[in-house]
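Note to self: keep these together.
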Amino acid sequence: KKENVDKYHSKEDFSGKTVGVEKGSSSEEVAGNEIPEVKLNSLSKITDLFLELKNGKIDGIVSSRVVGRQYVIANEDLGICEEVSFENSEKKVSCGIAKGNGDFVEVVNKVIKECQDSGKFDEWIDEYSQKAAEEAE
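Structure:
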């Protein structure tokens, strides 16, 4: 919750706390391995985790940055602990491109890197998450 963000500056601050994670996700593995003495609440739907957080049944949620930011934009009473980071949190994502398109793969990888380095991806996530939240109202 936004009111508690200042309490958490490191993953160790969640030690002994109840943290929500999506069942079977990389977040479940990372939280279980990197937060000392954590009590995991593993649920199959991320939406249920955010309801648990809003209702005070868990102390926080470990999720991908994209998902977390979207929920924070849509819910003014939630916040993100920006300082908390995990060692093994880099999530690999891939897409399929037909064989024989090596030149195209190089262009795609270049554009992805440029967008990551410039912060464009983060800008787009914020912009389109805000639009989605507004249209959902």
